[in-house]
Amino acid sequence: MTLIAPDPTTHRHPAWADTPRDAGGWIARAREVAAVLADDALARDRAGAPPAAEVALLKESGLVTLLGPAAHGGGGQTWETAYRVIREIARGDGSIGQLLGYHYLWAWAVRLVGTDAQIAAVEQLYTEGRLLFGGAVNPRDADLVVTEDGDELVFSGRKSFSTGGVVSDLTVLEGVLQGTDTHIFAIVPTDQEGIVFARDWDNLGQRLTESGSVEIRDVRVDWSGAAGFVDRVFQPLVYNTLNVPAIQLVFANFYLGIAQGALDQAAGYTREHSRAWPYGGDDKERAVDEWYVLEGYGQIQSKLWADEALVDAAGAEISAALHAPREELTPERRGRIAARIAAAKLRIAEDGLEAATKVFELTGARATANAVGLDIHWRNLRTHTLHDPIPYKKREVGQYALLGKDPEPTWYT
Question: Where is the Acyl-CoA dehydrogenase C-terminal domain (predicted)?
Fold first, then answer.
């Protein structure tokens, strides 16, 4: 089956007339979507077109509303389920798994820092409209400035990364109030003259994430839209700092999905096309009977199963915190969660890259043909695992284990 944009006159794919009722149903829905994506993932990766049809598929399936309130037609699910869904989608297409994961984080941003009124308004808006979020929030670019103009805030500047922006409906902006060190988040419609995408994302992997740069030209937001501000003063909570552990575990889950996808494709190729080596002295008729092939797949699968267990345990822990009353989160609990997530991310980053390389040894020389496209998994993992240095994750876990020191909340921990 080839991915085709849904009929614009309908809001739902005919096969998805109903909303899944529980976590298992949503994960099954994600597998159905992933199967559609996997069918032509390589061709779409090479074409490099904006993933409009892919986003339409996420909307038609209802996956964009997974975390949205059931009262507004959303799934009303937990982050524990969201992480599993991200992984399943990435198993079919790593780029779209990333897009969906970032969407979930930015859709939750209003809960992380917003007021009760802001939460209610934003969640109703995006859930009822099945809207997709993008974000212009790259923290290493400190060049988005916010100025005051009466009762309005004016965002201006540039961000070198804006994942999903080109195909998004809503954009999360983040900038620093001029003359202060106060960061302000706001959610605005993407389709406006003041948001200009350079469409310059042309990277080795994750090619369909539309992660290129964006210019923000005098985008105006009412002060009431400044997330978490009451009478122009921000109301801080430890809970606000869960944004980074939450997104880091998004990374770990789509890394795991990509690695699982590499294993799936390689195993299929070995079963159907690989030939046994006839000069080893222990000749086999089929590649699937070669001892080193069996050993190799056993090693990859064992590591990915172990990674999955660690990722799922971290997901259960942060999900419980994300869905608990915001005032309850302590710095100690936040630190433990961040350390566990750092460990999960570093493990799947290293094991995933190993798997995406090892599969070539297990499939054989003919599997390097461009028509096979086994390289897409390594390219995707290699690209995004450079997001922030893995050695720092090792240090965070080491400090936690050896010194009992919690990871300090920063833009990357």
Answer: 249-387
